[in-house]
Structures
1.
Amino acid sequence: MRFMIMVKATRDSEAGVWPEEPEKERLFAAMATYHEELAKSGVLLDASGLQPSSKGARIKFSAGKRTFVDGPFAETKELIAGYTIIQVKSREEAFEWAKRFPAPHGDDKEGEIEIRQLYELDDFGPSEAVDRFREMGLATAPNPKH
Amino acid sequence: MRFMILVKADKASEAGVLPDEKLLAAMGKFNEELVKAGVMLAGEGLQPSSKGARVKFSGEKRTVIDGPFAETKELIAGFWLWQVKSKEEAIEWVKRCPNPMPGESVIEIRQVFEAEDFGPAFTPELREQEERLRAQLSSKQQ
């Protein structure tokens, strides 16, 4: 089963501000070490950081209408600043890895991560559309050993 | 440049209601167009937050909170990763996306950081490590 670990944004991450040196370099090294352990354990699938919402946008869908809204967005703590996708054998294993995640904005800063399970194509039941997703290689775990 | 396209949750997605066949077919067609255009890097759906958890960090302390979480409209129900030439191109693609939910819904477009954005804290050693990890991951995904 696959899980996404989402790093919640903070005022600093939304402002595009990194921790001061040497904390910034220490944080990057801690993140690199953690992700290296994930990779060595065959758990890591992907990871990236998101730029502040000021560089993003939203599209709202309502009754056939599409409305475009430019960033930034106000509810900072509900925004996402980065993510890591892992493939594990159980929810418990996912939560254990999540507890070992480095404090995402530095040791002296508050932070929050959210752990969510990904849908697999089998969850949607059989249909022609699901087969087409499978052919595209989407929403499928790459490594059959888990 | 890479963009993450985030589909916001609604009451139905948080209740574990799956898309019907019509929406799955429309999404499948849209995804096929993304793949043909060389835009698609990944696309996934997230299970309801009731099956998830949060970890809060405060100093050395870590607190685990089990889902579900209340603020439905700020939760994520799915995402794509796209490779495009500009933010405008990403927005054009999102405008062509089928409405991902049965009623009202919101999709958020966010640019992904690349290695060069991190400055000198991303030392040559860390960069080398990252490239090694990415090489391992892409060989795993083939």
2.
Amino acid sequence: MSSRRLRDNDEWISALTSTGQAQEAALADLREILVSGLRRGLAAWLEPHSPQLVSLAEEASQEALVRILAKLDTFEGRSKFTTWAYKVAIRIALTELRRKQWKDVSLDQMLEFGSEEGREASVVDPQTGPEATVEQWDMLAQIGRILQEELTERQLAVMQAVALRGIPMEALAQKMGVERNALYKMMHDARLKLKRRLAREGLELGDVMATFEGSNTPGGRVVRGGSA
Amino acid sequence: MFDLLDRLRVWWSRGRRAPFAVSLFSLAILGRQIAATQEVEYACDDVYRLMDQFAEAVLRGDDAAPWMPLIRTHLERCPDCRAEFEALMQALRSPES
């Protein structure tokens, strides 16, 4: 049975901003709560009782305590304090997990799928898409052309790495030396630019969606922009 | 002096625009994302700021806050934030939290 004291938000803030025994007790309780929460929260990524999970939960909780103390004044009280603290600890833990998982993969390796795919696949084969109508093929070709005209290979490779290969943006951002937030904004700008261009070209997005929903599109088939 | 964002902008826009090919699979995935793109989207920092409130609202079944659709949209797009949200929900599914 845990001897941990239940606290409301004000009591957490009060204890953590105090000194001496009250602060130490609050830190010990919060650490225990974070470790336990991380072990539940990260169970989808690591084996529940594995040493890796235990170690990550403890290290991330420790780092989270430091960050929480430094950022206490940013807690607005709009959620339970422990929910806010979990959020901080989970960001730290998953960032570290991604860093470890991707540490031996270079940025070029993360992006090479898109460029290799582009180099290798250069054939339009209308015969290979039995479900696709001529109109659908034409639309896909137009979209391919617009991608080609609006994006650099690198931009396309980043978008493909995230969307198709599931490479975490955090991992990409770490390799690029930038914040994930900035990377997301860049990708949003690119998507918006493409969406506006599609609209200017008179390609109805509803039609585009219908084309994608209905088409059977294995990875080997390729449309070269503007050549179909 | 370049800040990090400037560096990203330079990196992002560098590279050739010579013809390259795009598979239908890529077009399908990217096309769906492009079609679903909104003029205004929350970025990762916006979502992080509100994630604790959002998680508690979801647990209460409360969908009233005007910013909640923006968070839902971002979570559909961003696997990193989605992972953090799912981990947070798992952490909160306990009597002690």
3.
Amino acid sequence: MSTAVADIHEVPAESRVNYLNASYGIKSWLFTTDHKRIALLYLASITFMFFIGGAAAVLMRIHLIEPQGALVQPETYNKLFSMHGVVMVFFFLVPSIPATLGNFLVPMMIGARDLAFPKLNLISWYIYITGAIFTLYAMISGGVDTGWTFYTPFSSLYSQTHVIATALGVFITGFSSILTGLNFIVTIHKMRAPGMTWFRLPLFIWAMYATSVIFILGTPVVAIAIFLVGLERIFHVGIFDPAVGGDPLLFQHLFWFYSHPAVYIMILPAMGVISELVTCFSKKRIFGYSIVAFSSMAIAIISFLVWGHHMFVTGQSVYAGLIFSALSFLVAIPSAIKVFNWTSTLYRGSISYEAPMLYALGFIGLFTMGGLTGLFLASLATDVHLNGTYFIVAHFHYIMVGGAVMGYLGGIHFWWPKITGRLYPDAWARFAALVVFVGFNLTFFPQFMLGYLGMPRRYAVYPDEFQVLNVMSSAGASILGVGYLIPLIYLVWSMRYGPAAGPNPWGARGLEWETPSPPPTENFEEIPVVTEEAYNYTGARQTAG
Amino acid sequence: MSGHIVPVKIYVAVFFSLLILTGLTTFAAYIDMGMTHIGHFTIDWNTVVALAIAVTKMLLVVLFFMHVKYSPGLTRLVVVAGFFWLAIMVALTLSDELTRGWEGHPKAWSTLLPFLHF
Amino acid sequence: MSEHSAQMVHGHSPALVHQFETEDQQREAGSLGMWLFLATEVMFFGGVFMAYIVYRALHLPDFIQGSHMLDVKFGAANTAVLICSSLTMALAIHAAQTGKSKSTIITYLILTMILGAAFLGIKFTFEWTSDWREGLVPGFHFTYGGPYASGVQLFFCFYFFMTGLHALHMITGLGLLTTLTVMASRGRFRAEYFAPLENSGLYWHFVDIVWIFLFPLLYLIGGRFGGGH
């Protein structure tokens, strides 16, 4: 097998048969069962949805330049933040890394030819598209104004917007996640190559496994929550109507039982990517492999115990609040442990600053800030002041954008040569990473201050004294938007004009780097036999651990 | 499951047990088993009996009809995880729904250490 | 290396799909996949069960009133019908496992389908239509004005939603059984390969278990010893 790899350098990508050119025509893509092609189908759809959600954000930030609103009516503003949330959470962040990088890499990293259920994989993409169509239809027909959280009784009884169409879109797309999670768990349990024991798996796989556990156990509950809102809206039977004995908070329990673990669906895969990037670009073994692996599982499990911290001020009993607050402090611990592990990996490593590494370093800093600000919110007393303000908005954007999106971009850049067989221009990539970092901080750091000073979220107008910070935030948003457009341009450019990439342009460790770029449809000529531990970076700087 | 064949007589025995338990739970509904009060909580024995019978029937189906008794540990883990997660959801939600009407507000440490007076 | 020559070399059956190395691996993966799907179903039904538990705790007299308006004999009969169908399903799998003829397998599958259809028949023609006649269908035709009216409406909302969701799963199960019967009639099952039967059996038994809980939770609330609590 090593001789085949050595030959590959001289052969241009186009003339070798790989998964991209093995068959042509739109039907070969729309009816494919190859996990790598399905990953690209997802990549295209998710990128599209990202820019839709981003457009809503741009409109919001333009509107907020003026204290009385510069662009739209308040009713429209409500629809903008609702659609931004729905699209970004359910159609971008939740599927982002699992459905693109996960689909592509899980079989390759464990030495398998495909996922356990390839046809189910394709079906999951069609389900995603169907859900997206319903939600986009709702957007075009006038949108929804309930917030992405669909709180009752507003969503079930009073809202005059397209709640059902949007909710149906989210309901349907949920099944796409469930099937992806199911596929990953079975694949990781049953299809590892000989010698690939659990503790030799790349940490990205541990992260995908933990994420899949959340997919399986959490998603069905939000499906039922949405279903009940739909029933209430159509039949007015009092499920969430206090006037006839219903409890609006019951919806919140069902909703957040999924939606809190959902935020870990968004961050765990990014953490998995970071483990891969940090080791490769410090040329060093991960510090504390089993601790990082166990922390991923601990995050997934504990994440299900904390959902009430979203309900401290909505009427939940203060006794339940006590329990949820204590448990919320607990969930911070495994995340913090991982940050220490990554930093220790960097220490005395042979560090290089290619674009993926810049995204990884940005992640570590920004995720830490986002995570620390979560502690203010886990504490009941301070949450009373900060809930419903821009502090919350800043907190979750630090984690979801500063964390998850940067992890996603870092991963896309890292595995791009493997996926496409092409190299992108690293100078532009580094520049874009810096633009994203600057734009991001300028957008969201002022929002911490705004929130602390008391500016409420989801409001179309604000007091004059908050204008300076709002203008800073909007300026940052425009820089951030540019930062996201630059990679779109050079990555698409590289697919046609980028130099051919060898099987392992980064000198990384892992089974996916031992196949040609792009890989053949069957992934491996022969199923590899694994004899080494993960991250076997040898060199003068390697230390035990 | 990988080749283990459950004899028909076990299936039939489970079948008759399930029918008997169904009859039992129906019959028990017509008997007043009373209630016991413990502080805030009330135990309704009819419900306890009905649920106990339902759980027993479920275990019979899961262990024998669904072959979990003869299945690898991973299968059992998935079964247990599903029910355990449901229990978490119910328990923590009830910790809110059932305590909303409770009197008084917890005052920091005195909630956890009621024997200390601040 | 073509798939055909690979089969000849390794002696794989044509039922082995390309991403798996052995039939054992394929069978174990299929079984684990079905169990994981059932775990999602536990949480799916569990969400409704949780809503039910909360409202029963908060509005017990209303739920008792509502429950007393259901006919226990139909609920009990349906429970028995489903238990019989679980037996016939288990016997269908047993027949395949022990290499019985395909007509034996088909007989048990058809018996299971008849019992499943009987369940739906009893539910729709005896219970739901009389509920409709009595004006107990929230959102469509709810005319009950007696004691605890709004809570009783909530109870019947849960009754129809839970039994309706269950019935939807039963209908899906009947669809699965039809497919299995067709496969069996084509001789697809034998002692070495009956995974679709086994995995569909798991699904069918799960739907039975849901009903095992629905019966006491909907029909037997507050006991039937007259006067309630």
4.
Amino acid sequence: MSEPVFVGVDVGASRTKVAVLDKNKEIIGHSVRKSGTDFEKTAELALDEALKMAGLSREDIGFCVSTGYGRKNVPFSEFTKTEIGCHAKGAFHYFPMAITIIDIGGQDNKIIKLDEAGHRLSFKMNRKCAAGTGAFLEEMSMRLDIPLEEMDELARQSENLVELGSYCTVFSATEVLEKIRQGKKVPDIVKGLFLSVIKRVLEMDSLTDRVVMTGGVVEHNPYLVEMVRERTGLEVMVPERPQLTGAVGAALYAMDAAAASEK
Amino acid sequence: MLAKKESLRKEIAATKTLKKIMANHFYELDEAARTGSKKVAWCTSVGPAELLRGMGFLVYFPENHGAMLGATRMATELIPYANAIGYSPDICSYLTSDIGSYLQKKTPLTKAYNIESVPRPDVLVFNTNQCRDVQDWFTWYGREFGVPVVGIHTHRDIGRIRDYQIKDIAKQIEDLIPPLEEVTGEKFDMDRFKEAVALSRQCSILWRRCLEAAAAIPSPWTFFDATIHMGPAVVARGTKEAVDYYELLLEELTQRVKDGTAAVEGERYRLYWEGMPIWGKLRSLSELFASLQTCIVASTYCNSWIFDQLDPDEPFESMARAYTELFIVRDEAYKEEYIKSCFEFFKLHGIIFHDAKTCPNNSNNRYGMPERLSKKLGIPTLTINGDLNDLRCYSEEQAKTNIEAFIEQLEEE
């Protein structure tokens, strides 16, 4: 058996992410799959995929921690941590300083504040509503019949952003239809959708000087980050693979637990 | 790290007696309403119960019924019937679930006590010290049953309480006597009234001491226990039974403190619950906190039935004071100071605010208080979105994640 590795599994409402870290905290394997309805099976498949990428097998796992909504559905994890804890841990790993983390997930948003030592000062999750989350963009892509992966490029082409006023995803859809009837251009509407996501997030909490954005929505729509920079005037940083931040955080907890068990 | 072991809270032996008192309360009301043996007054939970008892009424509390609708999870199914007749889903879900229950002729009293319906009122008596909704709620029933609705209109957002406010409320209480005499057909008896005030005061003092027992480390009981054991302080204050009950409960809690008995095994964290209970989720929340070895030791909610200002020598003025000095009637500065004093007394690690969708008056997170208190006290706060009765406003998974993340935060401090 080679040196043990540390695995984080983040079973989110939309996607399941696995990160495999070596002892130097480098990602040597990863996987992202749709969570679907069988969380256990998805977690197993994602783990196998990530291990395969690292050229390893399950015997090489030193410790495994699961997180996300389906965190209790991962039979091979030693213990669970919340996604709030894991995003904090993961983001601080990349940016070890006082930060505000904005995580935009498939069905929820989080704002987490850390001090310069990485201690959590506060956190907030979106209220019980999917407005401003990935689900909102998914719904709109379906309504507008635009593939999700094309939204970022379309938003960048906007010359005259269309602002949406509504709070609610369903009402926003009606508002979008109205804009289409008015002859507004699709890129301008898509940029308006992005702005709607940003507004929902920024009204959740205040921000500190340095912001880190994580989550799948940011990974697939990097233009959102540029828009947040522009809107807030703050330094906004993004880890290399923002969608994996929670899984990386979980793997780091796994590493801590392994170290503690050796003591 | 998340504790894997499920450690449930310890049951309280006095619960048996509690159940008997609550059952007798409803049987007595049911019998009176069916036979007309006694007059029945409906009263808001922090309304002038002492006056009503002193005038010989049996007193029924619709909010208690509301809480039962919530706890039995009947509320979410019944609320839409009230919505459909024009009572918005955004207003008090005690009101909407109770009216829905009446419209559908379904009550938790049937399953619990084999009682067909809530007791028909002879009069409805409110105090708006909690909110305006209670008045609208009672007015609906007043129209439905064709009986009088009388009440007290409280001053709101009070910082320092002024004499003119007390005089006003005392006069309003006194002014209730003539219309109530018309219902009873009997002359008001001052001695009987004073006796009810004296008993209510005794009940309050004992209830306060029960709640204060939670200052012990480990705490002998939890907020979840107290939400159940507060029953007699709500529905039977002003009676000897309530006094006897809290003597019994206090004895048990005192013994637990002496023995070092923890309600939550391995208590690690002590939290405060601000706002309404989420009635339909009491058990699951209680189990979740217990599994995290966290005890909710105190709450504004349970403390709201402490009326030890009551004084039989000055019955009207002291009632006015007791029902005006309540937390819910006060301004933000007072509320902050109050929670700060609880933080010190109960030795808390954090505060949970429940933002109840349909209860703005008793959701104190909405004007920046969690942020201010967190800064002032140097402890974290958490806001959970939910509701007292309408579980459509509550996301269990999200609440769970928030609570677990909050405990993780305490662990990492």
